Amino acid sequence: MRAGVLKTGLPLWAEIVLILAIKALLLWGAKQMWFSQPLTRSYQMTVPQETIGEQLIGPAEHHPTPRETASQPSRR
Fold first, then answer.
1. For the chain, counts of helices (H) and of strands (E)
2. Cα–Cα dist 19/9, whole Å
3. How far is CA 37 from the centre of its chain?
4. Is the pLDDT confidence value at 61 over 70?
5. How far apart are the first and last CA of the chain?
6. Is residue 69 in a domain?
7. How confident is the model at residue 73 (pLDDT cuts 50, 70, 90)?
8. Are 49 and 57 in contact (CB under 8 A)?
9. According to the UniProt record, where is the region Disordered (predicted)?
């Protein structure tokens, strides 16, 4: 029988489980190191959603409702 790729003497299934466990540990470590906390401890760098919408779509145009037009005096 042929020895495993790592030449550890372990069966192939054990080597695969070992490599997957090491990979999961490295992924968890990377998550903890780079993605667990925000860049700042405060919310000073947050942008309101309205500002983002104005930048992407443009400022909202105000269309008067029928009530608003009825309550305004007519200009002559």
1. 3, 0
2. 14
3. 13
4. yes
5. 100
6. no
7. low
8. no
9. 55-76
Question: Do the domain assignments include residue 56?
Answer: no
Could you tell me the residue range of the domain that residue 20 belongs to?
A: 1-34
Total domain count, the chain: 1
- Find tokens 């860049």 and name the residue: 39
Residue 1 has pLDDT above 60, yes or no: no
Q: So what's the pLDDT on residue 46? A: 74
User: Quick check: is 4 in a domain?
Assistant: yes
**CA dihedral in degrees (38, 44, 50, 53; nearest 10)?**
-50
Residue in the block written with tokens 């990979």:
23
24 within domain boundaries: yes
What sign results for the dihedral spanned by CA atoms 25, 31, 33, 37?
negative
Q: Which of 21, 20, 1, 22 is nearest to 11 (CA)?
A: 1
